[in-house]
Please model this.
Amino acid sequence: MDIYSKPIAFAVLAVVVILVGTVVTMFIPLFMPATQPPGDFVKPYTAVELEGRDIYIREGCNNCHTQTVRPLRTEVARYGEYSKPQEFAYDRPFLWGSRRTGPDLNRVGGKYPDSWHYQHMDNPQAMFQQSNMPAYRWLAQARLDTSYTAKKVAALGYGYSPQDVQRQLDDFRARVTAVDYPSKEIRNKVTPGALKGDLTELDALVAYLQKLGKDVKTVAAEASAPKAAEAAAALKNPYEGNRESIEEGKKLFAENCSVCHGADAKGKLGPDLTTKKKKFGDTDGDLYASIAKGRPGGMPDWEKTLGSEKIWKVIAYLRGIEGKQ
Amino acid sequence: MKSNGYDDSVVTGFTFSALFWLIIGLLVGLLIAAQMFLPALNLAPWLAFGRLRVIHTNGLGFGFGLAGIFACTYYMLQRLTRTPVAFPRLAKFHLYFFNACIALAALSLFAGMNTSKEYAELEWPLDVLIVVMWVIFAINVFGTLLKKREGQMYISLWYIVAMTVAVAVLYIVNNLEVPVSWFKSYSLYAGANDANVEWWYGHNVVGSVFTFPILAMFYYFLPKSVNIPIYSHRLSIISFWSLVFAYLWTGAHHLMFTPLPEWIQTVAIAFSIFMIAPSWGSVVNGYYTMQGNWDRMRSNYLAKFFIFGITFYGLQTIQGPTQGLRTLTSFFHYTDWVIGHVHMGTMGWVTMIISASFYYMVPKVFATEVYSVKLANLHFWLILVGQLLFTITLWIAGIQQGAMWKATNEDGSLTYSFLEAVAAMYPYWKIRFVGGLIYFAGIAVFTYNLIMTVRKAKVAAPAAVPRPA
Ligand code: HEM
Ligand code: HEM
Model:
């Protein structure tokens, strides 16, 4: 039989040839639990986080940001624990991305306080002059449309009732509009008057960003907490009072820390560091632990990005400016 | 209708639709290229990088790419079967319907209706329209093939049939989604499964749109242009079947080091390496066709488009499998290097072949000669220089970017912050923009040349102009 003169037979054969690889590498894995295992430690998105995720998709953030940390040494140092398949059980669609014009975001949840994100989304260049990220001012100026939220969670099978959804939305609104909301000042600055008491698209987006990787971090933090505290108490700064190191520390501070703690270290998004009394303890060991491991509420961990030497130099610099009002 | 009985009105219609979407897509490309070093250009929600990048890729892949493919397919199909298109009215409808789909697609993407899955961003109502559009096309392809007066199907028809069936399977499976409103849906698959389905699609849709039909054009228009038959029929048989077989195994080379099971990644690497063989089968077939007649690179203005085009295809199909290897992907994945890879394929291979095919086809349809060979040569050099400046710059940029991401100090901490690596890219991104401008100038010359060719024909012999069927 001459297949090259029979178009239909030819087409059928072509389909069969195409389907072999398709079945082996795509179709069969769909039914193998190991491809996308469920994760006990991963919680589905709340109604607000889901709306935030949809805004992330609408704006095409995935065109510049990935959400998967590869198991490579430098990548783990830069972003944190590498990504596990379980984490993505609720991701429809997946948002791993294919291009890193901006940094990976799979571990960004809890790394910074909400205020950091409000300010950053409003004007990235005001925080990082060299950044090429667009300013997303319009998000704070748009009321969050929740008319489909209940339908969305139903389609995704999260198991929330419409009442649950309403409660989640109300609770979250109460949280970000409360008088004692820690990021109130900056939220109020970027949100127009009429929307201050309401949920905006930016509120939802920030909620989503704060969820990314949080479940994984919680598990890891619980496992390592006691050991770290013990080790920290015994530490002493090797560069204390060293002039050169203090100069270097000053430069490092300007590059890495001033965004949140202010150019004069008197505090902005993060606390004032010029006082003798520090929020998380005053010894060298406490300071080292704060910087190296991070603190809840938005202090990132710097150990893997800066390394211990540079951290000690920053501490030497801070010791030089503290208490001098 | 002309004496040969072929209906070429849709050929012209699709040719100029392709040029229209090419120019739109390139203007958007230039804007996003500028936004990468001038973020103040993100002027409004619908003009922000995240939305525009998708319009660039869809506009060029599906607007320019598909229109060019349809134009050449309607042309080749009729001649290779020696049969007029089976349903000319349906073909006409296809032309208008296609353009309406692409226009709606662009509008919806501007508005942020977007599923986020690469090259499958359109929301579900548009997916339905695209499937209908594809079925209309397939009816004419198979309708004409079934009526054919030529016994054997030539190589080009194999690739057209493969594209027709592959795109249908890929598009439908990857776009299965659960709608929640007219403008919003969620993928049927979750997490790693969604990623695996997406890149099975993503890799193969690039193959089905930017490889199969472009090879169809190459196998038809190169021999026609230089007047030499293709070197080896047997080699083309082997290349064809091994290419369509191996392509479908390789999607996971886009997902190296992700949480996707490792065996799928390993299989993808192996088949990617194997792909060099069938790809180079076509390259070698092209080179040998020219054997003994290389002087036509000078005397025939179309030969150099085809030979440079297939050469970029050859380079692309070596670079691709290489950058999929574990050590190299860990360095180059996510960097500007990959953007260089993409644009050698699209600005080198795809554009070169479509350009030459149009130059061959349009004068034939209008029974005339091309308006200016000089301008065609200028067009060639502009798109060649523009593309090389663009891609070589980004390969260098990608190496530096990858190195900065990986650099560590003695104590194991990172040498550069992410932002330092961004700042280091600005000079490269500016040069890329210039490369894009040069390439764009070439496309402007191309468009002018084709418009003038049609004008000239209309002035010379109004009767030769194909009337609407
Ligand atoms: C004037 C010429 C062009 C310019 C200035 C341009 C610019 C760009 C830019 C800035 C990006 C985003 C890169 C990034 O995220 O880092 C991009 C991506 C892309 N462009 Fe172009 N482009 C041009 C021509 C083309 C052509 C002719 C095609 C196809 C026919 C094309 C297809 C694509 C594709 C598929 C991507 C996505 C790549 C990926 O996701 O890895 N481009 N282009
Ligand atoms: C043997 C043939 C080829 C192989 C094995 C191959 C391999 C690859 C690999 C491994 C990547 C992913 C790089 C990364 O993200 O780290 C890639 C990306 C890409 N390649 Fe190829 N390539 C081949 C030929 C082509 C051709 C002919 C084109 C047509 C123009 C093309 C267009 C693209 C595009 C558009 C992307 C970007 C996808 C995205 O991330 O959005 N490739 N290729």
